[in-house]
Specification:
heterodimer; A: about 525 residues; four-stranded antiparallel beta sheet; about 5% helix; B: about 230 residues; Porin; elongated
């Protein structure tokens, strides 16, 4: 029968055609380095479909509805990141490698508008394939680096000026190296460098030094600052970089060292310089677990958390003052802006992954009263991370993420912390409007929302295992919760349960699946 | 004069001679009162909606036919014919099993012309009614989704039938075996592929999976063996 059918096909002289190979390419949730399955944006959820080199953008045109649109991405995806404001998804691809014809796709950085009508908003064609992508929190710059060619210059960065388009936006920069390669990047705010306009810097942490790149003039030579040796005499590596924009100060915590390196960006010392760097090494009496700049009534200070102490360093004179702490805190977060007080000093939240307390470190008032400035609370669990709440209404709230199955909603004004216990491993997703947080355990049916206004948790049980939960703004301004289902019985797929984010209930939720099949060509 | 022209001339001449020699034999016994056929229909479906259900454009269907001569005039005859074609395709769509069942019913007139008593040519134009049932094993919803539709159109074909065998019995009931081949174009309207689980299956309030539209229109060939008398 089959032979006869094929014979007849042949006699049709129409050559029975095949179908696009896309139909034979299963969807697989992305999980490789630099890529995750999905990214929550302001008005849409981007689900990567790396097998088909595309992204399926899910948006909610009206309550309980979901529309999907697939956007083609470059070939050989290597990295994707959502911008800090979640307005844009950045996708880096290597293109066709090796290139065989002039028409072969080049490496590129693609920008996708993450609003309720998602679309590709910009693309930058790169000359060489890169594999790492770093984004500026202020959305002015992106950095790509780490090529995968036969010969790779580990210290070559491509700076992408996001305010420009085309080749003019790209500037390639090779950092002078003594053997190290970029490890971490910090984009500063505009630093008030004496003798010039405020300017932003890109601080590149490498194995044994720091590089300062002036983003106002990225083509100018970068300044390399070697790190001090460890206390044991070995090569030091940077552990943390903090800065204070008003004083143009940078501090570096160094692994294996009891000293903190303080850099002061100063007026040019020689002709042809745009600025100079004055370094100062300050011994804080022990290896600090965390550092940050704060202001007290006397001016700028660097706080170093060392054991059960907080050491305050005057970055100008390098004098130190130690304050006893109720516990060995390892994390510090300035919360002055959130408290919106008119005090003459900062307030910092102290926490730690090995202590069950949090503390408020109030640096206002007379310097001699520092011992009275610590107010600690026993919360019974350690804190591994502090998550900010965006928006204007609950900006004074923090989420305290613990290593186990709890999280805390902390009201910085009232200093009340509301413990939330979950029944499994925990992932948190703060709604971009800052009104609520979603908690879920990937692979389980249960998820929940906690409204910051009432602290009332609403537990929900989906009908299929939940991979991730996102909270997006719909086209009509309504907010929708999208609980993604990316696993299936036999093969994976893209599904979602859509709920009203403001009044979540599975009694009204709508179920979508087969979204991976849309737009297959 | 090319070889191709010479061969064509010889064939036409032989056909004319055959027709002339057959003048003596009456056509009516070879114009079947009733004819039942069993065959295979192969269509080429190039619509993109078909891709989810098949890794090729071919749709093979078993074909049952029934026809009866209504009117005879020497070499010409007019018959009413009808076919039921049934085929099934299964495949996977990005890892999810899919299946398409197609029933096609065509009924209409067929005009026949006997070149010689055991050989006739025909053309037909047959209104078509098709029922398609598409299904998708939705692994995420853990349910089978379906889209079932009627669609309408018309088949137009031309072909030839050759009498292979005639029983030796006398009288009006003298079964004859025919081989029939035809080719044409089958038009069918598009139907939406909005696949949903059956009532009570899968999650609550499932939105349909939208695979666009499906049109089973396309050229086709049918070969059949028929018994007539």
């Amino acid at each position: 029968m089959k032979k006869l059918a094929w014979l007849m096909c042949g006699t049709l002289a129409l050559a029975c055609g095949g179908r696009p190979s896309s139909w034979d390419t299963p969807y697989t949730p992305s999980s490789q380095n630099g890529l995750t399955s999905a990214y929550g944006l302001t008005g849409s959820v981007a689900v990567l479909d790396a097998a088909l080199e595309r992204v399926t953008m899910l948006s909610s045109p009206s309550p309980f509805t979901l529309s999907s649109r697939s956007l083609g991405l470059g070939k050989n995806l290597v990295a994707a990141r959502a911008s800090a404001d979640r307005q844009t998804l950045f996708v880096l691809s290597r293109g066709v490698q090796p290139q065989r014809t002039p028409k072969d796709e080049r490496p590129q950085l693609l920008l996708i508008d993450g609003g309720s009508s998602p679309a590709i908003s910009q693309s930058y064609t790169l000359t060489e394939p890169m594999e790492q992508l770093v984004l500026d929190p202020q959305n002015e710059w992106a950095v790509v680096y780490g090529g995968g060619g036969v010969v790779v210059n580990l210290n070559e960065l491509v700076l992408v000026n996001l305010a420009q388009s085309g080749a003019d936006a790209l500037s390639s920069k090779t950092l002078l190296s003594f053997g190290g390669s970029p490890q971490r990047f910090t984009f500063t705010a505009a630093m008030a460098v004496p003798g010039g306009e405020p300017r932003r810097f890109l601080i590149v942490e490498r194995d044994a030094d720091l590089v300062l790149i002036d983003l106002a003039q990225p083509d100018r030579d970068a300044v390399t600052v070697p790190l001090p040796k460890t206390d044991a005499g070995g090569t030091a590596s940077p552990a943390q970089v903090v800065y204070d924009a008003d004083s143009a100060s940078v501090a570096v915590r160094v692994n294996g060292s009891t000293s903190v390196l303080v850099l002061q960006l100063a007026a040019p010392a020689e002709d042809g310089e745009d600025y100079s760097v004055v370094t100062n090494l300050v011994d804080v009496g022990g290896q600090p677990a965390a550092i940050d700049f704060v202001h007290n009534s006397q001016g700028l200070r660097l706080v170093a958390l060392v054991g059960n102490s907080a050491v305050l360093v005057d970055p100008v004179t390098a004098t130190t003052q130690s304050v006893q702490m109720p516990a060995a805190f390892t994390g510090i977060r300035r919360i002055t802006a959130e408290l919106n007080t008119a005090a003459d000093g900062d307030v910092a939240l102290l926490y730690g992954a090995n202590v069950t307390k949090i503390a408020y470190f109030n640096l206002s008032g007379a310097p001699g009263a520092l011992y009275r400035s610590i107010e600690s609370s026993e919360i019974g669990v350690s804190v591994k991370n502090v998550i900010d709440v965006p928006g204007e209404r609950f900006f004074d709230h923090k989420l305290l993420e613990t290593p186990n199955q709890q999280f805390y909603v902390l009201d910085l004004h009232t200093r009340e912390s509301a413990p939330m216990k979950t029944n499994g491993a925990l992932s948190l997703e703060v709604a971009p409007d800052g009104e609520r947080v979603w908690a879920y355990n990937s692979g389980q049916l249960g998820f929940a929302s906690v409204d910051f206004a009432t602290l009332h948790p609403v537990s929900l049980i989906a009908e299929r295992p939940v991979s991730q939960v996102f909270d997006i703004e719909g086209a009509n301004g309504q907010r929708s919760a999208i609980a993604l289902h990316l696993t299936g019985e036999i093969s994976a797929g893209i599904g979602a349960t859509v709920l009203d984010a403001l009044a979540p209930s599975t009694a009204y939720a709508r179920f979508y699946s087969g979204l991976e099949l849309g737009g297959v060509k | 004069m090319s070889a191709r022209f010479r061969i064509s001339s010889l064939l036409l001449g032989a056909l004319w001679l055959s027709a002339a020699s057959a003048q003596a034999e009456p056509f009516a016994p070879h114009q079947p009162y009733l004819q039942a056929s069993l065959g295979v229909r192969v269509s080429k479906v190039s619509d993109a909606g078909y891709d989810a259900f098949s890794d090729s454009d071919e749709l093979t269907q078993v074909s049952l036919g029934l026809g009866g001569t209504l009117f005879r005039l020497q070499r010409f005859s007019l018959a009413a014919v009808g076919f039921w074609d049934y085929g099934q395709k299964s495949s996977t769509a990005r890892g999810a099993a899919t299946q398409l069942d197609v029933h096609r019913l065509t009924v209409g007139p067929e005009l026949r012309y006997h070149l010689i008593p055991p050989l006739y040519l025909f053309v037909n134009v047959l209104p078509a009614f098709a029922h398609s049932s598409a299904s998708l094993d939705d692994n995420v919803a853990q349910a089978t989704r379906h889209a079932r539709h009627w669609s309408y159109g018309v088949d137009a074909a031309a072909g030839a039938a050759v009498e292979l065998y005639a029983a030796r019995s006398e009288g009006w009931f003298r079964p004859r075996l025919w081989a029939i081949a035809e080719g044409g174009y089958g038009y069918l309207g598009s139907s939406a592929l909005q696949l949903s689980p059956d009532e009570g299956q899968g999650p609550q309030r499932p939105a349909p999976v939208d695979l666009g539209t499906l049109s089973l229109a396309g050229p086709y060939l049918r070969v059949s063996a028929a018994v007539g008398f």
